[in-house]
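TA notes, week 10

Several of you asked for a full example with nothing omitted. So below is the full record: structure tokens for the whole chain, then the designed sequence directly under it. When grading your own attempts, check the secondary structure regions first.
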């Protein structure tokens, strides 16, 4: 094998290696994209859970207020003599 053939062989091997690196890089970029999408979905889910917790807390306050109003109404009703 002469020096030109050796150079061509090395260049070919380098090109193959570069293609493998580029393919791996594409795969890593896709993985990062998927991870980004998953993180966005997780963040949205956490926000949704926080909103649900806020609504639950608000519903509890409304129920407590209704109970207080009912108690006050009962106290304000004129009592009938039996």
């Amino acid at each position: 094998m002469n020096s030109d053939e050796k150079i061509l062989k090395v260049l070919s091997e380098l090109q193959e290696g570069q293609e493998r690196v580029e393919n791996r890089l594409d795969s890593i970029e896709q993985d990062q994209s998927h991870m980004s999408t998953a993180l966005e979905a997780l963040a949205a889910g956490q926000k949704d859970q926080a909103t649900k917790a806020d609504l639950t807390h608000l519903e509890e306050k409304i129920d407590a207020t209704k109970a207080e109003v009912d108690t006050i109404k009962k106290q304000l009703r004129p009592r009938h003599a039996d």
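The chain is about 90% helix and 0% strand. Use that as a sanity check on your answer.
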